[in-house]
Amino acid sequence: MSEIGERKTSHLDLCATHDVESQRSTLLDQVHLLHEALPELSCDEVDPSVELLGRRLQAPLLISGMSGGTPRARELNRALATAAQKFGLGMGVGSQRAMLVDPSSEDTYRVREVAPDILLLANIGAVQARDAGPERVARLVEAIGADALCVHLNAAQELVQDEGDRDFRGCLAAIEQLVHELPVAVVAKETGCGFAPATLARLREIGVATVDVSGAGGTSWTGVEALRGSPRQRALGAALRDWGIPTAAAIVFGRRAGLRVIASGGIRTPLDVVRALALGADVAALALPFLRAHAEGGERGVLEIAERLAEGVRALLLLTGVRRPGELRIAACHLGPELRAWIDRAAEAGAAADAWAARIAEVH
Q1: Helices 3-17 and 71-87 sit at what angle, rounded to 10 degrees?
Q2: Are 253 and 196 in contact (CB under 8 A)?
Q3: pLDDT, tens only, 239-290
Q4: 115, 227, 303, 309: which could join 81 in a potential S-S bond, CB 3.0 to 4.6 Å?
Q5: Rounded distance between C-alpha atoms, residue 58 and residue 181, angstroms
Q6: Would the pTM count as exceeding 0.85?
Q7: What pLDDT shows up at residue 359?
Q8: How many domains does the chain have?
Q9: How many C-beta atoms surround the C-beta of residue 355 within 10 A?
């Protein structure tokens, strides 16, 4: 097995069996939705479907990309795709870096024969996209029949890996090139550290329209890397385990930047999904719960969790008195003080930056 394959297998094992989640809060528990005792709705009237990246999902749920490039990943991806097809969910594959190194690994990412109708997202790291160029990246998308491409940003994880990348220059330009040259949409995806408002503004300026915020509070990839290797990895990974912007704050930042938002990072329950939608997310994405369901129960376990999530979201829409997920943005809710502080301080910082830029412009 290649070095990449061994690393991916190690990641699957660690995430399935070890404590790999951040010890900080996503701050989604700071979103308090009001119960509607008189919803004046029937369950049949509730429509949880949404449109994302040109596809209609039957529920506002996306199964996040987890792996590929190993025989185990093939079984996992096909089980995830089967559930996505049955319940009308979206799905992403894990990083396709392995395909750049070993084209024979393509089969571990291919799921269209079991899921011809789903929204399918390809996946490559920003550094690999920069180095490979748009033509090779386009072939990765085409090879698996994907509808869009996630370009993942994982600087913190790479810094913890002994074998990780250290040079992140040119990644923004590489994403811009993909936005303009690929025939499919490009989604900028963090990997557990969230997006700051200034970063989101830069992404919007180069033409990115959708982001997967992947905030802090869920699976910590610095924490995962800390479990893998050398004393240096363990020390730095532990120090950075809780680094990042909480998921709830990152969702608000993304929506305020005028972007469509995929909410991920610690989404675990239907209530987390609905809270994320109330903050402005278009859909919510999960990885770890599906991975562990597969580890414990195979394809049946994945189908069961998909059904529970979809049913729970429908129930919560009714209990907040709304027919469709988008209506949650205007539903009555209360934000706790910690999340409110994150939002207010970001707004203050943005105003200060705008004022500074205006003063510089006056001088010049």
Answers
A1: 60
A2: yes
A3: 999 999 999 999 999 999 999 999 999 999 999 999 999 999 999 999 999 9
A4: 115
A5: 30
A6: yes
A7: 54
A8: 1
A9: 10
> Within its chain, how far is the Cα of 135 from the centroid?
25
Rounded distance, CA 246 to CA 321, Å?
A: 28
Reference 127, options 107, 97, 87, 162; nearest CA is: 97
CA–centroid distance for 143 within its chain: 22
- The amino acid occupying position 344 is D
237's tokens: 């990974």
Residue 307: pLDDT band with limits 50, 70, 90? very high
What angle (nearest 5°) sits at the alpha carbon of residue 96, between those of residues 90 and 97? 155
| Cα gap 360→364, rounded to integer Å | 6
Distance of CA 90 to the CA centre of its chain: 12
Per-residue pLDDT at 198 exceeds 90: yes
**Exposure of 64 by Cβ count < 10 A (0-12 exposed, 13-18 middle, 19+ buried)?**
buried
**Least confident range of 31-40, 49-58, 136-145, 221-230:** 221-230
Q: Are 70 and 41 in contact (CB under 8 A)?
A: no
CA atoms within 13 A on the CB side of 79: 25
- Look up residue 194 and give its amino acid: G
Q: What is the mean pLDDT of residues 224-248?
A: 91
Residue 347 belongs to domain with CATH number: 3.20.20.70
Residue 56 token pair: 């209609």
**Percent helix / strand / coil, the chain, rounded to 5:** 55, 15, 35
* Domain interval for residue 230: 3-363
Question: What type of residue sits at position 248?
Answer: A
pLDDT at residue 114 tops 90:
yes
Whether residue 213 contacts residue 250, with contact meaning beta carbons closer than 8 Å, is answered with yes
